[in-house]
């Protein structure tokens, strides 16, 4: 497989706090990488560093062979790096359709509003929000706003898509539906990095798992190995989880 993203010794400090410490990680095209770890481990900070929201303090980030360290968010979007946010933040007064059209225009500013809206309609249909196209984003349920967030990210035509806790706060039927969408996205060839606390989802969709703890990458490998890794069990999964898992083979 060929490399799409590479982090070399990436660190991010907030005053004295080391949110990310010397993270080196390679992601290949077509992978679905699960990024896991306890609260405050540095997962969102890593995604923010790559997508230009909060630049790295040091280290190097390479996307499709190009040095993108310190890139701005709009530049990242135009290169094909898109993300959803943990706290969904649509333009509340805009319709669902125009939220997605705005995302399309953000990544391709030359596009006409008419074609951005046509494109937006297709993305809304993909995430199952066709019927809500004309509704203002403020009136959508949390699950719908999460799917809207996904449609916005897709409107940026990503090559690499970061999903930041797209399942948080959803019920099991909604998680099931979101999981199917992630499978479809992966099948369409988009490389995915997902921050996810639900291990059931991680194990269902991820081809590889990277684990952060206190800003340090403590493990990186195939899901079946990661869930047995003693450092990961200690830092995140817990011994009960490991025992339950071992009992289920
Ligand atoms: N803008 C900021 N200013 C100061 N500290 C920050 C900032 N952003 C993150 N941090 C701190 O950096 C550390 C890593 O935070 P981060 O949000 O990356 O963790 P996370 O693994 O995504 O956690 P969670 O699972 O709770 O979302 C935390 O201690 C957090 O408080």
UniProtKB/TrEMBL annotation:
<keyword id="KW-0067">ATP-binding</keyword>
<keyword id="KW-0813">Transport</keyword>
<dbReference type="InterPro" id="IPR051120">
    <property type="entry name" value="ABC_AA/LPS_Transport"/>
</dbReference>
<dbReference type="InterPro" id="IPR003593">
    <property type="entry name" value="AAA+_ATPase"/>
</dbReference>
<keyword id="KW-0547">Nucleotide-binding</keyword>
<dbReference type="Pfam" id="PF12399">
    <property type="entry name" value="BCA_ABC_TP_C"/>
</dbReference>
<dbReference type="Pfam" id="PF00005">
    <property type="entry name" value="ABC_tran"/>
</dbReference>
<dbReference type="InterPro" id="IPR027417">
    <property type="entry name" value="P-loop_NTPase"/>
</dbReference>
<dbReference type="InterPro" id="IPR003439">
    <property type="entry name" value="ABC_transporter-like_ATP-bd"/>
</dbReference>
<comment type="function">
    <text>Involved in beta-(1--&gt;2)glucan export. Transmembrane domains (TMD) form a pore in the inner membrane and the ATP-binding domain (NBD) is responsible for energy generation.</text>
</comment>
<dbReference type="GO" id="GO:0005524">
    <property type="term" value="F:ATP binding"/>
</dbReference>
<dbReference type="InterPro" id="IPR032823">
    <property type="entry name" value="BCA_ABC_TP_C"/>
</dbReference>
<feature type="domain" description="ABC transporter">
    <location>
        <begin position="5"/>
        <end position="239"/>
    </location>
</feature>
<protein>
    <submittedName>
        <fullName>Amino acid/amide ABC transporter ATP-binding protein 1, HAAT family</fullName>
    </submittedName>
</protein>
<dbReference type="GO" id="GO:0016887">
    <property type="term" value="F:ATP hydrolysis activity"/>
</dbReference>
<dbReference type="GO" id="GO:0005886">
    <property type="term" value="C:plasma membrane"/>
</dbReference>
């Amino acid at each position: 497989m060929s490399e799409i993203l590479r982090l070399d010794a990436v660190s991010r400090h907030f005053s004295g706090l080391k949110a990310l410490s010397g993270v080196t990680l390679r992601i290949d095209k077509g992978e679905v990488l699960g990024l896991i770890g306890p609260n405050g481990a540095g997962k969102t900070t890593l995604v923010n560093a790559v997508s230009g929201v909060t630049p790295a303090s040091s280290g190097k980030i390479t996307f499709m062979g190009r040095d993108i360290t310190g890139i701005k968010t709009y530049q990242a979007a135009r290169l094909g790096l898109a993300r959803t946010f943990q706290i969904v933040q649509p333009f509340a007064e805009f319709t669902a359709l125009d939220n997605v059209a705005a995302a399309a225009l953000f990544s391709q500013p030359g596009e006409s509003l008419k074609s951005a809206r046509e494109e937006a309609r297709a993305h809304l249909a993909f995430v199952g929000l066709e019927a809500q196209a004309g509704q203002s984003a403020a009136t959508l349920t949390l699950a719908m706003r999460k799917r809207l967030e996904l449609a916005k990210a897709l409107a940026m035509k990503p090559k690499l898509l970061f999903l930041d806790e797209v399942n948080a706060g959803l019920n099991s039927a909604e998680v099931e539906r979101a999981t199917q969408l992630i499978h479809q996205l992966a099948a369409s060839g988009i490389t995915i990095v997902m921050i996810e606390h639900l291990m059931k989802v991680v194990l269902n969709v991820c081809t590889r798992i990277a684990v952060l703890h206190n800003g340090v990458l403590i493990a990186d490998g195939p899901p079946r190995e990661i869930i047995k890794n003693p450092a990961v069990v200690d830092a995140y999964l817990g011994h009960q989880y490991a025992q339950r898992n071992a009992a289920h083979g």
